[in-house]
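We store amino acids, tokens; thus:
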Amino acid sequence: MNVNDFLAHLNRGDTIEGGSEMHQMMHTVSQQALKITAELNGHYHTPEEIQKLFSKLIGKPLDNTFAMFPPFYTDCGKNISVGKDVFINSGCRFQDQGGITIGDGVLIGHNVVLATLNHDIDPRKRSTMHPAPINIGKNVWIGANVTVVPGVTIGEGAIIAAGAVVNKDVSPNVIVGGVPATILKEIETSQE
């Protein structure tokens, strides 16, 4: 099994049974991610060096408009897709096995958690995991200390208020906040 087989399995939403070959592959990929994030977080890097390390982590080229303030943490990395003009602030944690897609112009605040795996609810199968993707539309702003759970799509132009827990899809051009997050306000967009 290779990384592409692993990602295809995850992107189909197929279960990862504890102790399986897929589970072992997940551990192998996580060791690679931990090595790269240790390098990324270990000392100062120029913005260009951060782009190179993050590109190596996700296994894809990045637009030169990408910016991030480390530290950054992930236990996979290979299932993250990033658009143009994306900024990720310090302390973020992405559990991306289920897939994380970040659209153009997205701003992600301090200490944001994006989690794409759930453990099985049956205590006898707790090591079994169920992946589900997180999709973040263009020009979304995610405030500090937000948690987004598996399977959530955040619509274009939305704002997620600091500290929110997003457990369901967010419509475009709204502000949501709270635990669980609910709509606080609609955003009026300019017609240019």
Summary: The chain has three helices and 18 strands. The chain has a mean pLDDT of 96. The first strand starts at residue 67 and ends at 68. The two ends are 50 Å apart (CA to CA).
